[in-house]
Amino acid sequence: MSSKGSPRKKRPGDEDKLTFKERLAALRNLPAFFRMVWQTSPGLTIANILLRIAQSAMPLSLLYVGKLIIDQVVLLTKDGEHSARLLWELVALEFIIALLSDGLSRVISLMDSLLGDLFANHTSVKIMVHAAALDLDQFEDSEFYDKLERARQQTFGRTVLLSQALSQIQDLITIGFLAAGLILFNPWLIGLLLIAVIPAFLNESRFNDLYYKLQWGQTSDRRELDYIRYIGASDETAKEVKVFDLSNYLIHRFRIISDKFYADKKRLEVRHAIWGTVFAVLGSAGYYGAYIIIILQTINGSLTIGSLAFLAGSFRQLRTTFQGILIRFSSVTQGAMYLQDLFDFFKIKPKMTSPVHPRPFPNPIVQGFTFEDVGFKYVNSEKWAIRHLNFTLHAGEKLALVGENGAGKTTLVKLLSRLYDPVEGRILLDGVDLREYDLAQLRVNVGVIFQDFQRYQMTVAQNIAVGNIDQTYNQPLIEDAARQSLAAPLIEKMPHGYEQMLGRRFNQGIDLSGGEWQKIALARAYMKDAQLLILDEPTSALDARAEYNVFLRFADLTKNKTAVLISHRFSTVRMADRILVLEKGGLAELGSHEELLERKGKYAELFELQASGYK
Ligand SMILES: Nc1ncnc2c1ncn2[C@@H]1O[C@H](COP(=O)(O)OP(=O)(O)OP(=O)(O)O)[C@@H](O)[C@H]1O
Predict the structure, then answer these.
(1) 381 CB under 6 A from ligand 1?
(2) Is residue 225 packed enough to be buried (19+ CB in 10 Å), middle (13-18) or exposed (0-12)?
(3) ipTM of the prediction
(4) Is the CB–ligand 1 distance for residue 167 below 6 Å?
């Protein structure tokens, strides 16, 4: 998942400036952005644009009516006989335009905020949908996490971009109106205007780039900061933080990073403020230059006093609008560059997909699963976790995996359930590569409970139903699963039974012991009628008798099914039909308990070791 070709890869850290061309290039993201906005709500988008077009005619109308009013007043002061009726009509008109303009801007900001909220929700959902489709190993890559993080930031940041981009369009139209008025009276004032605003614009662009670079370079530190904040104040970590007295260390680490953020930002803010002031002074000088020219023309008699007010007003308004546009231009382009992160994230494609024409999943499985010279290493590791692995898991067989820590047991299980694909060799199901079956059908047919299963802060019933989420409301099935995993007696004793909230995060939640959690998690395995059931040490926290009972029950319940179980307890392991001993990612031994004891190899050694502990 390298981001080769992405122009931003080189930026953080190095100081090469972002060229105007690069900034303009970022604008190419806007059409796609507006498509997303449009998909969020076509009605609100159209209404917003129409209202903004109406609003952009308001400043010129106000100024022009203002000019007419002043000219009428001057006329009345010179000639008392003149009727004042037109004057009052004009004043009434100006009042109506002012009210309309105010009303319009309120409705526009309401629409912006509604559209922004909808867009943020829509994008968050899109990100979740996309993240759910990605592969497990993509989540193990820190570069991926940075992308995900930046994409998440986009959802709220982009609502600002939305209203800015729309304001930009509105202001451009406003400028069109105002410039038309100005050109009619004095075309070369426009030139003076450009001189007054362009330096300020360049300055703002430069600082926007610097802010972007600063933020970009801080992404992974920011993740660390969030993580420290989380472990510093979370129900899940509070226990360890206290016994190891970690809080001072965490606070210290937090301070170091956040102080650095503050110092970097402050340096930039101060520079920005200084340069901003310098260019604002230049802009004002331009404005007053133009003002003097208009005043001189009025004294000459070539302009009326109304026109003086109109031109000065137009010029001032043009300058602010222009400056607004130019300053916003750089933040719009900056926003458009940030959008690239969002689109980059959407471009990450899962590698593990279903084939276009998948084979129907065998039901029942006839031969079983065959590992053919399977090798696998994790993306972030150089070491083979499994290599040259050959064996067959026969249909209907109960296979136990045994091996020391890090031998590759969990990795084997992940390959079997297609959370990963082999890097070398292949896994066959009934003689056909596992990759040729539909992934969703495979998930339905293979049930896995991992040693590090999730403890969801949800009700007991929901915690069990995650094993087959389509059956969330199938209470008899949930209760049946709980009986099979031997969790039922425990649940019946809880104050709210199956509706009991677990974990302490939410109201009235209770926490369970490790073994109690495991019994609940085990019930997930019985929620669906999977043909292959895998239990990866989910019973390690059960006492020896409870684990024995669980597996006795497991063997009974999986009579016609294929099952793989991992356990470090040999009293459990010996119940399996065959035992596969893994050593450093390779097959060391394979056979029944008796056969392996007879062979006096690794298994016998480990078995004796454990047995001697009980003597
Ligand atoms: N996500 C990962 N990224 C990189 N390396 C990993 C990852 N998961 C496991 N490994 C490495 O792969 C090897 C096999 O790990 P695996 O989890 O399969 O062992 P295991 O036999 O299940 O161990 P245990 O009995 O401790 O659960 C180990 O060397 C481990 O360090």
Answers:
(1) yes
(2) middle
(3) 0.96
(4) no
Nearest CA owner, ligand 1 atom 11: 385
Rounded CA gap, 428 and 601, in Å? Answer: 29
Domains of the chain: 25-185 (no CATH), 188-302 (no CATH), 368-613 (3.40.50.300)
- Rounded distance, CA 539 to CA 50, Å? 63
DSSP string for 309-362: HHHHHHHHHHHHHHHHHHHHHHHHHHHHHHHHHHHHHHH---S----SSPBPPP
For 131-160, what is each residue's pLDDT tens digit?
888 888 887 777 787 788 877 776 666 778
CA torsion sign, 17 to 20 to 21 to 23?
A: positive
Ligand 1 atom closest to 140 (CA): 1
The CA-CA-CA angle for residues 338, 318, 178, to 5°, reads 115
Rounded to a whole number of angstroms, the CA Rg of the chain reads 35
> Quick one: CA torsion of 8, 14, 16, 17, rounded to 10 degrees?
70
Taking the centre of ligand 1 as the mean of its atom positions, its distance from the CA of residue 375, in whole angstroms, is 14
Our answer on whether the CB atom of 139 is closer than 6 Å to any ligand 1 atom is: no
Pocket test for ligand 1, best of 411, 416, 564, 569 (most atoms within 8 A of CB): 411
- Pocket perturbation via mutation, ligand 1, pick of 376, 380, 381, 419 by most ligand atoms within 8 A of CB: 381
By CB neighbour count within 10 A (0-12 exposed, 13-18 middle, 19+ buried), where does 189 fall? buried
User: 294 and 266 in contact (C-beta within 8 Å)?
Assistant: no
Cβ atoms 332, 172 nearer than 8 A: no
Q: Which of 136, 145, 405, 410 has most ligand 1 atoms within 8 Å of CB, for mutation?
A: 410
Going 445 to 447 to 448 to 454, the CA torsion angle's sign is positive
**CA-CA distance, 271 to 376, in Å (whole number)?**
52
* Average pLDDT of the segment spanning 63-80: 89
364 preceded by cis ω (within 30°)?
yes
Ligand 1 geometric centre to CA of 411 (Å): 6
Q: How far apart are CA 40 and CA 33, in angstroms?
A: 11
Q: Ligand 1: which atom is nearest the Cα of residue 451?
A: 27
DSSP 478-525: HHHHHHHTT-HHHHHTSTTGGG-BBSSSSTT-B---HHHHHHHHHHGG
Do 510 and 494 form a contact (C-beta atoms < 8 A)? yes
| Residues contacting residue 615 through CB under 8 Å, at least 6 positions apart | none
b/e string for 386-410 if b means 16 or more Cβ within 10 A?
A: bbebebebbbbbbbbbbbeeebbbb
At 563, is the secondary structure helix, strand, or coil?
strand
Summarize pLDDT for 447-506 with one digit per residue, the tens. Answer: 888 888 888 989 999 999 998 888 889 999 999 999 988 899 999 999 999 999 998 777
The answer, yes or no, to whether any atom of ligand 1 lies below 6 A from the CB of 567, is no
